[in-house]
Structure formats: structure tokens, C-alpha cells
Amino acid sequence: MEAYIFNLLNLIAIYGILAVSLNFIIGYAGIYSLAHAVFFGLGAYTSAWVGLNVTPSTFVTIPAAMLVAAIVSLVLALPALRVRGEYFVAASLGLQVIAVTVFSEWKSFTGGIGGVLAIPPVNLFGAEIYQPREFAIVSVIALLIVIAITLALVRSSFGRNLRAIRDSESAAASFGKNVPLIKTVAVVISAALAAVAGALYASFISFINVESFMLDTSVLLMAMVIIGGTGTFLGPLVGAALLLILPSAISYLSFLPQTEIGALQQIIYGLGMTLLMIFRPGGIVGRRSGT
């Protein structure tokens, strides 16, 4: 039971990083993306490749993962961020579809459908960390660092520019702000932070394949942010914890057939988001004034 709890804590921390990094562009820049699982996957595959072929040191695998995700994010950001709203959502959806195909077919790098096996665990100063209890310390520290980075950015002049763009792009541009550049930088930062979660996930699970980085993962991450509350610091964490703990709780309902649990989870997600949009559109935490 203890191992199960720590495994769940590790997943909450990893998905918390993803939700916080996605909230950085959704909540503070008003950029809705359906491609966040792409950068999650890029971080995982890059970290796994570096760990297996170069060095297992986490001080190398995570920066490498962040760099690759940041570079690829420019493929989405540069052409797409000159458009607004639903057009960017469509562009991000296109990238997600393309990425799934690449992840499935680029077998020399991703292992294809079979995935990548025997990924090295987190390696800090030569010490391997693979026990769930010890790994939880690493994952929670990584989450706190990501939160600290986003907090510093949001409270900086860059964060104020993001909120100005979120509220009105035309008004921000009229004050001399380079809107495409600011939005591009925000997407690059968000992608790089998502890659941190990917690297941790690969080391924690020790096996990855394309099924973890498909469209339903991007939708789940967006649901975490929206349900928890966009534009808040606690919201994404609350959403991540809720949407990970809930399936675990449902799985313990002995009167439900195991084959029906997945469908029930989807129904609960959809119903929860619908009710929130009606009765609490700001999410569980809700957007605080001044953030």
C-alpha cells in the first residue's frame, strides 16, 4: 500500500508539472494548446535516448530534453502565433497528430509502437534513484522548482506583458509590445518545462511508448488546468491531483466491472467540466484578482 501511495504521489507531481507549464500559456497568455503531450513525449524520448546512449546523469538528460522540446516548440509557435484563438488550437491539434505519427514510425529513436525499454532511473551524482519513496523527493522538488520558475516569470514584467496580451492583444500592441515574440517565448518556456515532466516520467516508469503522449493526454492536461482554475498557482495542482486520485478511487469500487471503469471515468470528467463551466467557470480554485 505504501508503494502504491508513493507511486501515485510521483504521478501527481509529474502531471502537476505538466499542468503548471500548460497553465503558464493558458492562464496567463490566453493561448490554448492541444499539443502539450507532444512536448511531454519529446522530453521523455530525448531523456531516454540520452540516458541509454550518452550518459544517465539527470543533470544531462533533463537539460537535453528541455532543449529539444524548446526547439520543436518553435515549429508550432513561429507560424501559428500570428493567429488568434481557435486558429492556434487548430494548429496545435495538427502538431499533435503529426507528432503521434512520428512517435509511432521513427523506430530508431522512439521504438515505434513497442516503445523504449530499460530506461535508466534518475541518476544524481552517480547514485541511482528508483524506489518510489526516494523518487517522490526528486519529483516533488522538481515540481517546486517549476512552480518557482513560473511564479517568478508571472510576477515579472514579462508576466505583466503576458496578461496584457491575454486581456487584449490589440491594446498590448498599441503600447508597443511585440505580441508575436512574447507569445513565442511563452510557448517555448512552457514546452521546456513540460519536457522536465517527460524526463522524470521516463525515468520513473522505465518504459515509454506513444500511447502516453496522444491527444487524450493533451485533453486530460487541459482538463486539469480548467477544472483546477486557469490563471492560478494552486488550480493546476488541484486539477492534477483530482483527476489522478479519482480514477484510483473508482478502481476500488468492487461492484463495477473493470471493463466499465474507463468509460465511467470519461463520463465523470465530462460531467465535471460541464458543471464547472455552468456553476464555477473559473475552476475549483478560481482566478484571483490581480493574478
Automatic annotation (TrEMBL):
Keywords from the UniProt entry: Cell membrane, Membrane, Transmembrane, Transmembrane helix
Protein's cellular compartments: Cell membrane
Keyword Cell membrane: yes
Example of a GO MF term: branched-chain amino acid transmembrane transporter activity
Pfam family, one: BPD_transp_2
Spans through the membrane: 6-26, 33-52, 58-80, 87-104, 135-154, 185-208, 220-246, 267-286
UniProt topology in membrane: Multi-pass membrane protein
Domain of life: Bacteria
GO terms under cellular component: plasma membrane
This protein's name: Branched-chain amino acid transport system permease protein
